[in-house]
Amino acid sequence: MPIAFHRVYLESAGYFMPGEPVSNEAMDSYIAPLNRMSSRIKTRILAENGIKHRYYAIDPEGATVFSNAQLAAHAIRDCLRRHDTDLSAVSLLTSGSSGGDALMPGFSNMIQGELAAQPMETLSVHGICAAGVSAIQVAAQGVEMGGHASALAVASELPSRLFKRSRFAARGYDADFDAHFLRWMLSDGAGAVLLGNSGRPLPGASQGVRLRLKWVHQRSFSGDYPVCMQLGLSADRGKGHLDYPSWSEAESDGALSLRQDIRLLPHLFDIGIHEYAKLVRDGWVDPDQVDHFLCHYSSEKFIPVVEDLMEKAGLVIPRERWFSNLAWRGNTGAASILIMLAEFLETREVKPGEQIFCYIPESGRFMAAYMLLEAEAVHAKPVPAGAPVAAAREDALSGDAEAIAPPHDPDMAPQGLGQLLTELAAIWHDYRSRVWRTPVIKRLRNRQFATADYLNWMENWIPQVREGSKWMREGAASLSEQYAPLAALIDLHAGEEQNDFEILFQDYRTAGGAVDSIDALRRNPGGEALNAYLHGLAATRDPIGLLGAIYIIEGTGQRIVPALLPLLKASLKLPPDAFRFLEYHGHNDEHHLARWLSAVELALDCDEDGRAEQRIVDTARRTAALYLMQFHHVMEGDAA
């Protein structure tokens, strides 16, 4: 649940960009390509990310011109100058960054020292993109609770020091794609905000407007996914930089290279938009009431991704309300949202009643952060402390606002499915999160997965997949005449999938599986329970609930399998033919789910007793629990 604030105002915002803007053509003077592959990667990345200029706190020779603490101090001075406030009025300083200039002490303490500031409370947040929001949240809590009348939150990044050519000399200027990628994405800068309880007008506001921070919401999904962006681990994430005999050996092995696994990035936006949908559902934000949307994304390539997911959820914020300065300020990590907010307030006029909604995804190990601010006329009375946490306007949420499509739905949800898809999406996300913490996936994520583990998994799984088309056909045969169109559609789908288990069995044999007859394979206890449940349900009259089972099973193929496949390939020295089934489902289950959505429409159109929706939801919940049991029993010895 978001943390609500009633007496916290954003009183000023400032930023600092070091040196002169660096164009795409001038980048080579600072972080030259390392080899021919590097040049090709640079061309490709710059064509996609939309960044035209960025800033570096190093000179062309690689020498540091501004330290990270100095960047932060300059942003704080700019923030205070705009508000005509002295540092002596501030009693809390919070900072967010992926790293200061020293491993210790804390970054906030180093900034306080750089400012030669008076004694005060400090807190340093170490993270990546969402660390700036964390710093704002802590500062806001200090003001809300009455411990501080004024608090500063600052975020600053200086990644260019990691990208200069000399860093790669120990490796002969050789680097993998994941280490190359971020060199052309990230740059330097700092942003700061002053929070207080006075409610003074924003600097330069012509209408006497103050900006109230309504709430902050952050949620981490680090327990659900592998590391996506990291610094300090070996390329296979199996060794930390301090585990090497020396710093030079760590650098030579690439453990001090900043890396990002871009194959995982689509899951970050899927998670973020679903979390946004829950905020709408629970009354914290209404897309129709958002006047300005500040979205942090690392590349303009992700704009249509975010738009598409919002559209599928039925929660669009029109593009004309978006604001981003990525093209001319670059991607400055944790500082990006603070720099964006400061420049927005510097260049745009905010009117009383307008809302500013901020969305910040973090790819380190997946976080999503959000903030909502609302402009008030200075004469308006502050919201009393006893007001409801999520006080919504009477018109805040219309029925259409809850038309939340499932997280893996390929098309915009049809009308009338809003409530059903909302409930199914909640079941799905809980199931997905639990699957990621099962012993088999944990071993895979930790790079401890062996070929024997893969074979054991498939020995459990193949007979389960074999039954899929059977219970679907049984279910179609149990449908009465009123559901004839639905029965035909299910038969078509079952026909397409009836031989899938043979592909999986061939993968098993290619990977070295010793069992030469499918009939000799047995489902594990979870698979047996799932199989018995689905066959039993299929034998009942009008088993509409089977659509809920298909939702979970096909969703596993579209959303979980593609995330596992790169990890399997990285962990197992097997030929490509050992993964054909997983490749096929990762690419084709999206089309299967489009057909599923049509089947749901048919089922509801034919439903006479009005119970179809609840039966679909109940079956989805039970199927998720049984499929999860199947995952748990893959590794019997580790399940405890």
Q: What are the SSEs and their pairings?
A:
Blueprint: E1 3-4, E2 9-16, E3 22-23, H1 36-49, E4 53-54, H2 68-83, E5 92-97, H3 107-115, E6 121-126, H4 131-144, E7 150-157, H5 160-163, H6 177-181, E8 189-196, E9 209-220, E10 229-230, H7 247-252, E11 259-260, H8 265-281, E12 292-295, H9 303-312, E13 322-323, H10 326-329, H11 336-347, E14 355-362, E15 367-377, H12 418-435, H13 439-445, H14 451-466, H15 468-477, H16 484-497, H17 500-510, H18 525-538, H19 546-571, H20 580-606, H21 612-632
Parallel strand pairs: 5-6, 5-7, 12-13, 12-14
Antiparallel strand pairs: 1-9, 2-8, 2-9, 3-4, 7-8, 9-15, 10-11, 14-15
Helix pairs in contact: 2-3, 8-9, 12-21, 14-17, 15-16, 15-18, 16-20, 18-21, 19-20, 19-21
For this structure, what is the CATH homologous superfamily of the largest domain?
Thiolase/Chalcone synthase
Major sheet characteristics? 11 strands, mixed
Strand content bin: 5-15%
The 3D shape can be described as globular
Instruction: Return the structural class.
Output: alpha/beta
User: Based on DSSP secondary structure assignment, what is the total number of beta strands?
Assistant: 15
CATH C-level name of the largest domain: Alpha Beta
3D structure, described in words:
This protein is α/β, with parallel strands linked by helices and 640 residues long. It folds into 2 domains: 3-226 and 261-377, Thiolase/Chalcone synthase (Peroxisomal Thiolase, Chain A, domain 1), CATH 3.40.47; 418-638, Heme oxygenase-like (Heme Oxygenase, Chain A), CATH 1.20.910.10. The chain has 21 helices and 15 strands. The chain has helices at 36-49, 68-83, 107-115, 131-144, 160-163, 177-181, 247-252, 265-281, 303-312, 326-329, 336-347, 418-435, 439-445, 451-466, 468-477, 484-497, 500-510, 525-538, 546-571, 580-606, 612-632; strands spanning 3-4, 9-16, 22-23, 53-54, 92-97, 121-126, 150-157, 189-196, 209-220, 229-230, 259-260, 292-295, 322-323, 355-362, 367-377. Strands 1, 2, 5, 6, 7, 8, 9, 12, 13, 14 and 15 form an 11-stranded mixed sheet that branches. A two-stranded antiparallel sheet has the order 3-4. Strands 10-11 form a two-stranded antiparallel ribbon. It is globular, with a radius of gyration of 27 Å.
